[in-house]
Specification:
Layout (H helix, E strand, L loop, with lengths): L13 E5 L7 E7 L2 E10 L13 E8 L11 H4 L4 H15 L11 E10 L4 H22 L12 E9 L2 E4 L3 H4 L4 E8 L4 E8 L6 H26 L4
Parallel strand pairs: 4-5
Antiparallel strand pairs: 1-2, 2-3, 3-5, 6-7, 6-8, 8-9
Helix pairs in contact: 2-3, 3-5
């Protein structure tokens, strides 16, 4: 029995609330159970120096946790003057995930900055951030389309992410903190709507596991991402 009482293949209650931020070109509050992440997308009519003159756009991301997103207060990284390794790794993952489904040649030399701020954490913050970031990114492109800066949405597919792991010997989907903190193995899967693999981060916490078990985790993740992609479309109000 999982601590939450969920079935092995059951997601937490997922809510994707678009247009959460008044000022951002795109925004989404992503709730995966008690994990809440605010994702915003901001459009800038310029690109980083290394992209200038290329005729291509850029999508990048930043990630952070509010001081009381967890059980105890964590200091602000800005106050320390340096981002932690985990923060850098996650924000790079979010950026790669968005670029994997974006045609960077289709919106000129413009940048879209994704900001993912964890308001409350209960496991799976990076997967919630990626899933919500896609909604925010899509909205930013809708804004550009309405402003006649682009003719069509330059996204080639959907992208979402979910965790899966081995809890008390059983493969389960979408680990919350209670499960993640004591799992025998855990993995994060970033997959596209058509089933493509963007990135898989997987590790065993105690004993190694075999290929058959990994395949079960991947099967769980594919089912979870399929559900998340439907929720993204519903949040955006576009056709299923």
């Amino acid at each position: 029995m999982r601590p939450s009482g969920r079935a092995a293949d059951q997601l937490r209650t997922v809510v994707l609330e678009p247009d959460f931020s008044k000022h951002a070109e795109g925004s989404c509050l992503a709730k995966f159970g008690d994990t809440h992440v605010l994702c915003t997308a901001s459009v800038d009519n310029s690109v980083p120096g290394f992209m200038r003159g290329s005729g291509r756009g850029w999508v990048t991301a930043e990630y952070g946790m509010l001081p009381r997103a967890t059980h105890t207060r964590g200091g602000r990284e800005a106050a320390r003057g340096k981002q932690g390794g985990r923060t850098v790794e996650i924000q790079r993952l979010i950026g790669r995930s968005m670029r994997a489904v974006t045609d960077l040649t289709a919106f000129g030399e413009r940048s879209i900055q994704i900001d993912c701020d964890v308001l409350q954490a209960d496991g799976g913050t990076r997967t919630a951030a990626i899933t919500g970031a896609y909604v925010a990114l899509y909205q930013a492109f809708q804004f550009m389309q309405t402003a006649k800066a682009i003719k069509q949405i330059p996204l080639t597919d959907q992208v979402a992410a979910i965790s899966a792991g081995i809890y008390k010997g059983e493969p389960v989907l979408d680990l919350d903190y209670d499960e993640d903190s004591s799992a025998d193995a855990d993995a994060n899967f970033v997959l596209t709507g058509r089933g493509g693999i963007v990135e898989i981060q997987a590790s065993a916490e105690s004993e190694p596991y075999d290929r058959a078990t990994f395949n079960k985790l991947l099967d769980l993740a594919e089912g979870g991402v399929s559900q998340l992609c439907r929720k993204q479309l519903q949040a955006l109000g576009v056709g299923l």
